[in-house]
Amino acid sequence: MSAARRCAPPRALAGLFFWHLKNTGRWQIPCQFVHPCHVANGRLITFQYFNFLKRMYVTQCNKDLSQQAKPKSDSVASPFRELQQLDPEKHTLHKMRPISAVQQPLYKTSSRNEVREMKCTAGTEELVTPVRAGPKEDRQWKEMKLQLDDLPGILARLSKIKLTALVVSTASAGFAMAPVPFDLTCFLLASLGTGLASCAANSINQFFEVPFDSNMNRTKTRPLVRGQISPLLAVCFAASCGVPGIALLTLAVNPLTGALGAFNIFLYTCCYTPLKRMSIANTWVGAVVGAIPPVMGWTAATGSLDAGALLLGGILYSWQFPHFNALSWGLREDYSRGGYCMMSVTHPGLCRRVALRHCLALIGLSTVAPLLDITTWTFPIISLPINLYISYLGFRFYRDADRSSSRKLFFCSLWHLPLLLLVMFTCKKSLVEKEDKGDLLAESHGRAMEMRLP
Amino acid sequence: PPAHSRNDWIGPPDKHSNLRPIIFYVPPEESPLERRLREARQEAQACDQRFWARHNRAFSQEKEEFIYSRLKAKGLEMRDETGQKATLNAEEMADFYKDFLSKNFRKHMQYNRDWYKRNFTITFLMGQVALVRALRWLRWRKKNV
């Protein structure tokens, strides 16, 4: 449980967020992603379905952990032990409580004297034979009773808390980039509201997709799939997150942000989720879903939908494509079997073209930023190498269309976005500069007027 | 699951359908509403199990056939010298995945509709049952106080 909590990166404040980035040198989440890069080929890694309110796949490495459950000499049933991941960034936590003497007869039938091993829950790199290794305790029959101790962890997984954290960070990036003085309370309220809305949307998404999730390697450890929580509770949780979240945004921040939040929840749950199984258009809808949080952050700060908000949204929209298309390239078998209509399966050429197109669009959008007075001209200059690199990888993916190029592109996209946002923030046109410019203009106008007056 | 448990039990994923079977607990004083809920869940479980088991079996079968036909076209055997099963690389399998997805599209559309309907009905029934139970508990508390 604590591991799951530790997993949610501490980045509540935008200012701290960027400092955090600077200090750690890289995002905590990409830290997990970078791990597989260093991992030997023999290691199996998991792609965990992890959304930016739509899709962002996280690779997660479960370290091998084997523990022996030794039976107590004086009791018949063996005690359960807490199996905790050594890796603090580990997402799943398997916790078993020691059986009390009273409950002994109950568990007599299901004695656990065998060695319990936690294998890497993996979707392997090789498409042809996905390994369906799971923890041994997964093979046991479990009572469908809500364990209150596990509830926080279960709810965290239900709401895809890590993805929610990322969504909140993009929203805070939007807030930080807005050309208004920084208001801490507004910022915190907006972040909280966005986070709650994201939790709600993710829970509903999982509620809708139970049988499909059970059939895909990535998602088969979700709480609803495993029966750790009932669908009714999932819906109630979603409602209890969504309603206060949107209310908070509408009343405490501004109605526009609230409306955007509600619209985004609707778009994600009622458009994107069903559309995933109907047509490849889901990718575009999903990209919009991912682009809205920074727009929400901006409108929370300024109260209006300016060109700057749309630009920020546009950058995130374009980013989704290389990110998702590269990722989905490796999941074609699961998608095909699960019945998901994804470009990588049905229109592979289009998949790669779109990814490349949007990599190049990122360059264009970065250049527009100073034109809209959001950043100084240093931004396109500094961001050019980053954008060119991802475009290069996008081109390689387009040309080679193989596993290695798709992986390279995917991993690049993971550090590309935070870096881009960070650079954008550091190149942000400061208000002082703008005010000075305004004063200068006013002065020159004044002088012009004086000169005209005889 | 043990005999004296008063809860449902959920088991490991099924080999064919990857769905986890649930054994439902039938309380002695089951109300008609609760019975409706239980039966709806049992029926849904059976439908899902049937669909996915058949679907996954078809997938593996067709995949084998595809690999076999492609290997034959290339002039290779199913197993190479070391006895390992010969496989095709991802790009060659891509054609199969695309084909399989489009072939089963109608089937999935139908299943989706049914699944959404069943899911909503069951959740709604769960809500009703929970509400009834909560009211009953409140009444019992009022009586006892």
Q: Roughly what fraction of the amino acids of chain B lie in strands?
A: under 5%
The computed structural class of chain B is mainly alpha
By DSSP (H or I, 4+ residues per run), the number of helices of chain A equals 18
Would you count the extended β strands of chain A for me?
5
The arrangement of helices and strands of chain A along the chain is: HHHEEEHEEHHHHHHHHHHHHHH
Give me the side-by-side strand order of the main sheet of chain A: 1-2
Number of domains of chain B: 1
**Secondary structure: helix percent of chain B:** 55-70%
Amount of helix of chain A: 55-70%
Major beta-sheet overview of chain B: 2 strands, antiparallel
Cα separation of the termini of chain B: 37 Å
* Strands in their spatial order, largest beta sheet of chain B: 1-2
> Tell me, what's the shape of chain A?
globular
CATH H-level name of the domain at 147-304 in chain A... which superfamily?
UbiA prenyltransferase
Provide a compact summary of the structure.
Chain A is mainly alpha-helical and 454 residues long.
Description:
The complex is a heterodimer of chains A (454) and B (145). Chain A is mainly alpha-helical and 454 residues long. Chain A has 18 helices and 5 strands. Among the domains of chain A are: 147-304, Tetracycline Repressor, domain 2 (Orthogonal Bundle); 306-453, Four Helix Bundle (Hemerythrin (Met), subunit A). Helix content of chain A is 62%, strand content 4%. In chain A, the strands form 2 sheets. Chain A has a two-stranded antiparallel sheet with strand order 1-2. In chain A, helix 6 (161-177) crosses helix 17 (403-426) and helix 9 (231-253) packs antiparallel against helix 10. The longest helix of chain A is centred in the middle third of the chain and has 25 residues, at 184-208. Chain B is mainly α and 145 residues long. Chain B has one domain. Chains A and B meet through helix 4, strand 5, helix 8, helix 9 and helix 13 of A and strand 1, strand 2, helix 1, helix 2 and helix 3 of B.
